[in-house]
Amino acid sequence: MPPRKDPRVDAYIAKAPAYAKPILTRLRKVVHTALPEIAEDTKWSSPHFDYKGIFCSMSAFKQHCMFGFWLHRPLLASLTAADAATLTGLRRIASVEDLPDDKTLTRIIKAGAKLNDAGVKPAREKAPPKPMPKAPPALIAALKKNASASATFAGASPSFKREYINWIVEAKSADTRQRRLETAVEWMADGKGRNWKYEPKK
C-alpha cells in the first residue's frame, strides 16, 4: 500500500526551519512504516496522522519540534517506564539526535495504534471548581439584620450564594449596589434565588 501522503505536509516541512526538516522527515517516514494504512491531514496548522480517528501529530517551532499522540495519557500508562520517558521527551526535540531509534519509535506508535483499535477516548479533564467569592461586608451586615434571609443564605448551595454575591459586587455604582443588596435580602427572606423569576413554577 503506497503511503497516503498529503501535499500540505510536504509544504509544511519545506517551510520549517532548517534544523526541523530532518526531524519531521524522519518522524513522517517512521509513522508510515509502522502503520502503512495511516492517512495524513493537517489540523490546527500542523501535520496530523489519522488512524481510526485522530492519532498523532508533529509540529515545528523556532527552536524545537514536538511529536505527540491524541491519546497521550492512556498511551503513557500502557508503556514501559523507559518508553514512557521516551514519549515524554518527544514533546521537545531540538535536533535529529534527540529522536529515539526507529525500533523504539515504532514500538510506541504501534502501542498507540492498539488504543485506537480498542476505541479508547481521551479523558476529559474536569475544570477545578470555582472558588467561592467573598461576600461583601455590606451583605453580611444586612443578613444579620434579617433572620429569614440569613437562614436562607446559610443553607443555600454554593451556586445560589455565588449568584447573589456576584450580582451585588459587579454593580457599577454605589446606588445600584445598594438597591441590589436590598433586593437580594428581600428575595432571600422569601427563600428565593437570584434568578427565581426564570425558574420553573412548581
Number of domains: 2
Radius of gyration: 28 Å
Q: How many extended strands?
A: 4
CATH architecture of the largest domain: Alpha-Beta Complex
Describe the structure.
The protein contains 9 helices and 4 strands. It is of the alpha+beta class and 202 residues long. The protein has 2 domains: 7-117, Aspartate Aminotransferase, domain 1 (Alpha-Beta Complex), CATH 3.90.1150; 137-198, no CATH class. A 4-stranded antiparallel β-sheet has the order 1-2-3-4. Strand 2 (46-50) and strand 3 form a beta hairpin. Helix 3 (72-78) packs across helix 5.
Features:
single chain; 202 residues; 4-stranded antiparallel beta sheet; alpha+beta; Aspartate Aminotransferase, domain 1; elongated; 50% helix; 9 helices; 2 domains
